Amino acid sequence: MGSNPVILEKLIEKFERFPGIGRKTAQKMAFFVLSQTREEAEDFANAIVLAHEKIKRCAICKNLTDEDQCKICRNEARDKGTICVVEDTRDVLAFERTHEYTGVYHVLGGLISPLEGIGPDDLFVKELLSRIKEGETKEIIMATNPTVEGEATALYLSRLIKPLGVRVTRLAYGIPVGSDLEYADDITLYRALEGRRDI
Amino acid sequence: MGSNPVILEKLIEKFERFPGIGRKTAQKMAFFVLSQTREEAEDFANAIVLAHEKIKRCAICKNLTDEDQCKICRNEARDKGTICVVEDTRDVLAFERTHEYTGVYHVLGGLISPLEGIGPDDLFVKELLSRIKEGETKEIIMATNPTVEGEATALYLSRLIKPLGVRVTRLAYGIPVGSDLEYADDITLYRALEGRRDI
Lengths: 199, 199
Known about the structure:
Largest interface: A-B, 57 and 57 residues
Strand order of the largest sheet of chain A: 4-3-5-6
Shape of chain A: globular
Helix content of chain A: 40-55%
Oligomer: homodimer
């Protein structure tokens, strides 16, 4: 470490702060920056500043967008009566990749986690409730991750939403398509059995 | 992909160009940039441009430095008669971490690889030879990686250097400290046997 020039060391430290990036990868990335042309490096730096400047949350669904409302909320063809509630933008991207979902989304910006000190007020829960109270909503699909925090958040929200007379559903649990039964964990297998359907 | 704002998509693409960074990690990194404060993001962008502007290769050993000569070459206490020849700066860092090596380095900037079209002229080979011809050098330690390219480069260089009357050595092959013999590959084990020493 001591033999790295200070400026290089600082750049490596910046890369190390990224989630999932360790010392070695950070070094590799810093060296890659140095191996780029001057123009490429400046382009990269500009992209960072520009993204930070322009990207904000959609006024309706809190998804990331560079306009006042995101593309999905502005799309007339999407069914505004169905709202899929997800943890973050990456989940929206996952659903959009299926090309099957035609409703809209609501991004919570996290999950309720008492251990990390994240409560409902730290998430976009108020915004979800006022969207529902506007009256257009028919169904809320809870699509938080199947983890303890995801389940707790879904349960908490459904208790708030059901009294508003809106149908609340949850993604189906079961064995993943293309997987091997042998390797499925007990709970997943049990849920798959429990949720079995006629064919 | 289609539902990402263009500016965000561009930032993700920049991260995707890094070696070993796939689509998902690039997305994670871009989202991390957005989650930082404005100041942090600008700091990061500045660190990139600054590093690219200031970091260059040492006039002597071709290691990365922000001055004309690197710290190691400027250090009076280092033995200028012993040159450790490595592929790139990361290898210098690895040796420096041992705190045992007191000689100097020569960074080749790559390895000879006909498949990738990299010949001796693309590396700092000329510079190494002229360093040796200056007469101070007593020993050249070949410390290229134990791969086909590393071996070929070491062999090629030693053939050029030996006629100059300088001792050329190679790092010892053997079983790594703390490893399990059971998992050592055949060639390593053979080399360890071949290079056995009296105790």
